[in-house]
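## Example record

The block below lists the input lines for one assembly entry, exactly as stored, with component labels intact.
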Amino acid sequence: MNSVFRNNTTMNLTQLSKEDILLALSEIPDPEIPVITIEELGILRDVKWDCITCTIVITPTYTGCPAMKVIEDDIRIKLKSLGIENIIVELVYSPAWTTDWISDTAKEKLEKYGIAPPEHSSVDKGTLLGKPRDLRCPHCSSKNVQMISQFGSTACKALYRCLDCREPFDYFKCI
Amino acid sequence: MTLEQAKFEYLLRLGDSSLIIGHRLSEWCGHGPILEEDIALINIALDFVGNATSLLTYAAQVEGKGRTEDDLAYLRNERDYRNLLLTEQPNGDYAMTIARQFLYDVYTYFLYEELKNSKDETIAAIAVKSHKEITYHLRHTTEWMYRLGDGTEESHQRLQNGLNELWMFTSDLFDMDEVDAILIKAGIAPDLNKIKEAWEKRVKEVVAEATLQLPTSIAKQKGSREGKHTEHLGYLLAEMQYLPRTYPTAKW
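Predicted structure tokens for the full assembly:
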């Protein structure tokens, strides 16, 4: 479907629906965790389309997330490939991003990729103050794991190790 | 002073404090005592700089003179900076950094909790977002307070020295003036006396649990509200602002 758009950049933009745009944007991978998309991660919040101007609303996972600029650039490139020239990328902080927005399919993908997905609702404050109860090693599924550091390779992750298979792994923190 | 002027001033206080303490923490990059702590401190630094970006962007917008967040960060002089004196204090040894971060994290934890209810929607939105991150910061420094305070004789003494050294800058955290009065009335900012109570209680609890002594020094230094800083800020700005001032048209 996407290739059709790319070959017809002169196509009438009025034929392009909001759904088409969403579908195209939902292919964009997160720059730091490329196995999941910005849509699955909950960064992509809204698309406004009036057949001339396209406004994309995104929200950062963490305020200082350095990937936001790359994500914005990726969105612009994707929209241009659809023939859209007037693009506004809006960054919003409210409602604040939460790990609750990560879809179940995305959580499965994260685990396969070697990142333990957030296990709980962020409403459960216990996750903030102690070890998540059902956290398991993404390599061998053992629950015999230990936190090395609350701060991992990116702002959204903590560093753990598995005491059975001895492999270190990242855990996607609940916020 | 108009409401907009007070808001601009207040946003500088919040944003500058985040920017300066974030820059201080970034000085640990590659120098952390262990790899995990190096990564942790830089992650926290990133949160602060991100928070500063959103606050200073909004400050520039409120000011309405066409300045950007980068203009505010890189083209203001020392006396125009409104960051808290505590945030500009040098890293010292690791215990000194932990003492500084702990005192500041408890402060921002309670301050941002109140700011979540600000009648200014943008400030409230930034506060909701940042408070989630601050909760992690506070947990991290509190653990290190226990570990170092209740650790070896050496770590205990170093952390106690850090607390003693920094204590004189804590009254600056709760200093209020006309800006606060205007914003409290408008429901935009909280009364810092309320924050002070919660701050003192938490700090006392953790200090006692960490087998440390609450400093008794009565020396106090204030002045951040008027841009009267300690000697350390100038050196920090010289390093932070060097590149954009030397190459004003440089772009990433």
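The beta strands of chain A are 44-49, 53-58, 86-91, 115-116, 145-149, 157-162, 168-172. The interface with chain B takes residues 60, 62-66, 92-97, 122, 128-129, 148-155, 159, 173, 175 of chain A (CB under 8 Å).
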